[in-house]
Amino acid sequence: MTQISDVSAPKVAPGAIKAPPDSGETPFRLMWRKLRRHRLAQISGVILILLYAIALLADFLAPRDPNAYIGRFTYAPPQQLHLFDGVTFAPFVYDYKVTVDPDALKRSFEVNPDKKIPVHFFVASEPYKLLGFIPLQHRFIGPADPESPFYLFGADRLGRDMLSRLIHGARISLSIGLSGVMLSLLIGVIVGGISGYVGGRTDMIIQRIIEFIWSLPQIPLWLGLAAAMPRDWTSLQAYFVITIILALIGWTELARVVRGRVLALKTEDFVAAARLDGASELRIILRHIVPSFMSHIIAVATLAIPAMILAETTLSYLGLGLQAPIVSWGVLLREAQNIRSIASAPWLLAPGFAVILAVLALNFFGDGLRDAADPYS
């Protein structure tokens, strides 16, 4: 019996790679599918979720008020948290044994193994409002006696808890980067879209403005803008002004990216169809062109957040940005400017490690988003 072969089926050469069929999925679903295969980006995403959750719940997670101080525990070293007392789950820390050098008038701290300080979860505290509107009177962890020393990350020169200040500093430093990028993203999309879509003299003028901003050295520019802020402004006013300053400097990169993508897409058929349908130029840009490469914009914006965080940290460290009593990572790092303080209290550098962790996580996550923004690559 003769076997009839299927001549209609195309022959595939051995070792050839079949092209994946068009699944009809949205760009965001394709982007998410590829992002799930980027292991480093996934780990960085989890770290970022934890960091922003800590910043959001700072009032509840911080053991103390960030500005509360106990003078007799200045530069107290970190205490180790013990979860078990024997075989019983009873968290505690050992007390300090404090001695004062009469000549140098310097305190030295040693562990006092004879005295244990009980530590409780959901311990009672002074009233506060979580997220600004939820009244609470408990914190996640803390000593039973609020006057007892509890310094898991050590204390600063005034006896303030570094862990509490680090947690509250995350709220300012992380949010200022996020809000600054959102504002610069808005400016960059509008200006870059107009520059690429209109073209001609408008494009030339916008590009020369961008090049002029790029030619300005950042540190002197920050010096001038920060010096223009009145010193009698409140902390909230200073926060918003620093955010606007960072956004006004950071929108140029996003505008260049948007311009390049608009130049590539404005001659496509769907743009011509929208124009023939009577859509306005602004509607064509915002409703048809920009959504087609929104995943790429998200990736670029994610990579811009670390630059915003580093800029705020630099400004505050130099004394040009946020000032005490605002608590940010840059403000906390000002305590580490003195080499003598670092030598005697190296835990003051903890905000620097927090900045490194956040910037690396954002960079790795942004790299993963940038790779996933082209799902067919």
Give me the secondary-structure topology.
Elements: H1 27-35, H2 39-56, H3 58-61, E1 82-85, E2 88-101, E3 106-130, E4 134-143, H4 162-198, H5 200-215, H6 218-227, H7 235-265, H8 269-276, H9 281-289, H10 294-317, H11 329-333, H12 339-344, H13 350-372
Antiparallel strand pairs: 1-2, 2-3, 3-4
Helix pairs in contact: 1-13, 2-4, 2-13, 4-5, 4-7, 4-9, 4-10, 4-13, 7-10, 8-9, 10-13
CATH fold call of the largest domain: MetI-like fold
Using only C-alpha atoms, the radius of gyration works out to: 28 Å
- Helical content class: 40-55%
Find the structural class using helix and strand composition.
Answer: alpha+beta
Per CATH, the architecture of the largest domain is Orthogonal Bundle
End-to-end CA span: 48 Å
Low-confidence stretches: 1-23
Count the strands? 4
Strand order of the largest sheet: 1-2-3-4
N to C succession of SSEs? HHHEEEEHHHHHHHHHH
CATH class of the largest domain: Mainly Alpha
Number of helices: 13
Rounded mean pLDDT score: 80
Largest sheet: 4 strands, antiparallel
- Outline, from the CA principal axes? elongated
Strand content: 5-15%
Q: Give the CATH H-level superfamily of the largest domain.
A: MetI-like
> How many domain modules?
2
